[in-house]
Structure formats: C-alpha cells, structure tokens
Amino acid sequence: MKKFLILLLIGISIYCCSSTKIEEKEIKYFNENNIEISKSEFKKLNTNSKFLGLTIDSTNHKKLILRENYGSISNRAALEELLENVANRELESSKPLVIIYYPGKDKCNSAGGFTDKSWVKNWRIELEEGLNRVANVKPIYIFKKKEGLESHRDVIELRKDPENIVERLFFKDHYPCGSFVVISEDGDYVSYLGEYPKSFVWAAAKMMIK
Predict the structure, then answer these.
(1) pLDDT at position 24, please?
(2) Domain limits for position 80
C-alpha cells in the first residue's frame, strides 16, 4: 500500500510538470502587427514604454499594442451629443474634446494614489489647470464600470459611457489603470492606452488644436 501511494504521488508530480510545460508551449506571443514572436523578444519589447502587453481573451496568448494611437472619427457631432446628454453641459465643437476613460477596477487602479481621495482631487485640479492653459478646455470623465471609484465620489464628475460609444470607438480592450483620448474639431484624434502622466494629456490637447 505504501509503495502504491509513493508511485501515485510520483505519477501526479510528473503529470503536473508535463501539463505546465504543455501550457507554456501553447502560449503564443505576438507583436503590434499580429506577427508571432518569441517569448524573449516579447519581454524585451514590453520593456519599451511605447508598448503595452495584453493577454488575449481566454487563450492566454500575449500581444503587444502601441500605447499611442492616431486616427479619425467621421461624426464628432454625434459623439458630442451623447456626451453632452450624460454630462449635462455643452461641449464646444471648435475646441479639442478631452475624454478621460476609466475601464473598471484592476490591479493598476486599485492601489496607491488612485484610491486616496485627496490625491485624486489634486490630480484632477492639476490636470484641469494644465488643460485650461494649453487649450482652454475642460475634460469629461467617462467610466465603463463603477466598481473601484469610491475615492472619486464628490471629487470628479464621472459619467457612464453612453451606449458604450467611447469604448467602441477608442478602447476596445481593458487597458490597465485608465486611458484618454483627445479629439480635434474635425474628428482627428490621439489616444493613449493604459496608465499615463498628466503631461501626455496636455501635449495631446495642444496637438489637436486646429
């Protein structure tokens, strides 16, 4: 009986090790152009601040994306109308539209200053002062999921993404901490995916002044 138990434990150990190796082999790595690359190359590129590494759905495959993206939307007026309805304020169509986006609770935004109300308040004040200086605009704060926003209550006017329009247009995946997008009056935009400094928002707003 004792020998049987020992053999059983050895068998389980071998199986677990084999399963782990198989799972590791099954994970694939892709660069920003969806071209498969090695794990070591993925790790090396992921240390570059211009890239963000994401896990692809339930496959556990890893993909690099560019943090900074440029594009255009065909109907800024329609987006403006939806945002004005939830924000209860008029947005100036001749100025850059700045959207600060919260995707929902994650490891990145569940610790540190993000959970401290006084820190969040100071962050908002500094962000808005900078935007007022460079573009004379005030941002609109949009969230997908409200969980984790307790420290923002009575500090930032957060609005639910109307019809998930912001997510569908700019933020198709969950990027850690949060993201932002700045849209020019003619629909050109620059977005930044994942955690960012306030200075990036100011620079993008200045860039989108036409």
Answers:
(1) 52
(2) 68-207
165 and 85 in contact (C-beta within 8 Å)?
no
Q: Which two tokens stand for residue 12?
A: 């389980």
* Amino acid sitting at position 139: P
Torsion, Cα 150 151 157 161, to 10 degrees, reads: -50
First to last CA, the chain: 81
Torsion of CA 148, 162, 168, 171, to 10 degrees: -30
Same domain, yes or no, for 199 and 151? yes
Question: 180 and 87 in one domain?
Answer: yes
Q: Is 101 helix (H, G, I), strand (E, B) or coil?
A: strand
What's residue 207's pLDDT?
Answer: 96
Structural tokens at position 127: 């962000």
For 75-111, letters b (16+ CB in 10 Å) and e give ebeebbeebeeebeeebeeebbbbbbbbbeeeeebee
**Where does residue 51 fall: left (phi above 0), alpha (psi -120 to 50 degrees), or beta otherwise?**
beta
- Tens of pLDDT along 158-192? 999 999 999 999 999 999 999 999 999 999 999 99
33-56, pLDDT tens digit by residue?
A: 999 999 999 899 988 889 999 887
Q: Residue type for 101, please? A: Y
* Among 45, 47, 64, 48, residue whose Cα is nearest residue 56: 64
Residues 57 and 153 in one domain: no
> What is 57-105 written as a DSSP string?
TTTTEEEEEESEEEEE-S-HHHHHHHHHHHHTS---TTS-EEEEEE---
| Pair of tokens at residue 48 | 């570059």
